[in-house]
Design brief:
The chain is α+β, with helices and mostly antiparallel strands. About 20% of the residues lie in helices and about 20% in strands.
Length: about 210
């Protein structure tokens, strides 16, 4: 199933949670984003760098466009600033915070995603040189996922107390101290704001 999805999307996926869903092994790269959306908004540029300077709406629009190109039913209905998630749709989507944390744990018991030593698995303020780095250069976690601690924050679906103007982001970034990069860390960010330390990765339910 994961191999078939790669053929349709050009993205490598890891199967998570007893094969109920799968997640992209890396943050969405600039090359993939440009191929789907026809543009690259990133501050730091390079095909294999994570795309950044994307707001939450950019991320859900990418999911829908990728789904259409893959012949899948888009997960989101978008009407201006109002976005609804069709949970029965077969297409790509952003992870929930619960899914993100489950995936980031890697089935292990580490402080960071894949290790208790952040230098082994992530780019953060002490080792990043204050910039993003190509994906999958550090050690993966137990599920084969890269950069879930550091490099760029990752948008998730969840809103803050049902206030859609604020959405959750997880994982920390190249800009942040180590404490921000732990598996359990999250914070809230305005959905229409962008940053050079904020990107995303995607998931898809299996069997749809």
């Amino acid at each position: 199933m994961a191999d078939d999805s790669k053929k349709r999307s050009g993205i490598d996926f890891a199967i998570i949670s007893e094969k109920k869903w799968m997640m992209s092994k890396t943050e969405i790269t600039q090359a993939v984003y440009k191929a789907i959306m026809g543009k690259n908004p990133s501050y730091f540029t390079g095909d294999n760098l994570p795309v950044e300077k994307v707001d939450w709406y950019d991320a859900v629009e990418f999911c829908n466009e990728l789904s259409k190109k893959a012949g899948l039913e888009p997960a989101y209905s978008i009407n201006g600033m109002n976005v609804e998630w069709n949970r029965t749709a077969s297409g790509y989507r952003l992870p929930t915070v619960e899914e993100w944390k489950y995936a980031a744990s890697g089935g292990q018991n580490y402080k960071y995603s894949g290790s208790d030593n952040l230098d082994e698995v992530g780019w953060y303020t002490d080792n990043s040189g204050r910039k993003t780095h190509p994906v999958a250069q550090k050690k993966p976690n137990g599920y084969g996922l890269y950069d879930m601690s550091g490099n760029v924050w990752e948008w998730c679906w969840d809103s803050r107390s049902s206030i859609s103007s604020e959405r959750c982001r997880c994982g920390g970034s190249w800009y942040d101290f180590a404490d921000y990069c732990g598996v359990g860390n999250k914070n809230w960010y305005y959905a229409n704001d962008t940053s050079s330390n904020l990107g995303f990765r995607i998931v898809r339910s299996i069997g749809k």
